[in-house]
Backbone:
């Protein structure tokens, strides 16, 4: 795969996807969103890939926001379509990906960048990271799922505080608020994420996919997450990985899910 704005490498069952616009602080434009859509879809369908690590090129930014030049002149309808298409193409795609996604947040994750990180299943921030949703300072609100995912992660009050002040928080604050799972030094960021990914890769990919679907169901209006869990639990019994996992347990050996 050849891209203009991202880099993709697959190694040791991990798909490394890097937003590669360092001169623009890796800002998201329509072309980058399209390329990310292609790379994530490919990684999800690939039998070789068990986990995805998403990051930004350079040391300054994960993704410093959306490319404002692209939509500064939009009208009401165009603005709604921008949010709708972006959410469907990228942010919802990441959230519902059947393979675990890890955001390696190196530097600024602002606006659409933080929304991108929140769409991943797991977030690790380097100690120099700064996170925020500054959209109201531009006369707009987060439009790529930020108002919903932030509140789900840190609670309504903290979410409204961060959004309405248009402020930034540090990696340590983000950890305390529950916005990120872990923090580490910047030079250790990818290796830290790899340690998580390697643990994931040792387990049943089919069971993990069912777990992601079940957890996400609890955050969808009108969907009974417990009912989804029951069905997904039952589906696991029909897989070869269930047979391998239970057999390995009874035989007192490590399961081989590859």
Residues:
């Amino acid at each position: 795969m050849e891209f203009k704005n991202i880099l993709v490498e697959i190694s040791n069952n991990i798909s490394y996807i890097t937003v590669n616009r360092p001169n623009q602080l890796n800002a998201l434009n329509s072309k980058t969103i399209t390329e990310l859509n292609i790379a994530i879809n490919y990684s999800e369908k690939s039998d070789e890939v068990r986990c995805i690590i998403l990051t930004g090129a350079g040391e300054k930014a994960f993704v410093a926001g959306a490319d404002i030049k692209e939509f500064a002149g939009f009208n009401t309808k165009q603005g709604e379509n921008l949010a709708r298409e972006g959410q469907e193409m990228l942010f919802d795609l990441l959230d519902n990906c059947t393979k675990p996604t890890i955001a390696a947040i190196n530097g600024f994750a602002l606006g659409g960048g933080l929304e991108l990180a929140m769409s991943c299943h797991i977030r690790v921030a380097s100690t120099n990271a700064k996170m925020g949703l500054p959209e109201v300072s531009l006369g707009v609100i987060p439009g790529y799922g930020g108002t919903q995912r932030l509140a789900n992660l840190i609670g309504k009050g903290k979410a409204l505080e961060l959004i309405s002040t248009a402020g930034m928080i540090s990696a340590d604050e983000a950890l305390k608020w529950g916005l990120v799972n872990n923090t580490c030094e910047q030079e250790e960021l990818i290796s830290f994420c790899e340690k998580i990914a390697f643990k994931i890769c040792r387990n049943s990919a089919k069971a993990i996919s069912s777990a992601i679907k079940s957890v996400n169901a609890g955050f969808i209006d009108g969907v009974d997450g417990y009912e989804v869990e029951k069905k997904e639990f039952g589906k696991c019994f029909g897989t070869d990985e269930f047979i391998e996992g239970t057999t390995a347990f009874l035989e007192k050996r490590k399961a081989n899910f590859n």
Q: What stands out?
A: The CA atoms of residues 157 and 234 lie 38 Å apart. The radius of gyration is 19 Å. The chain has a mean pLDDT of 96.
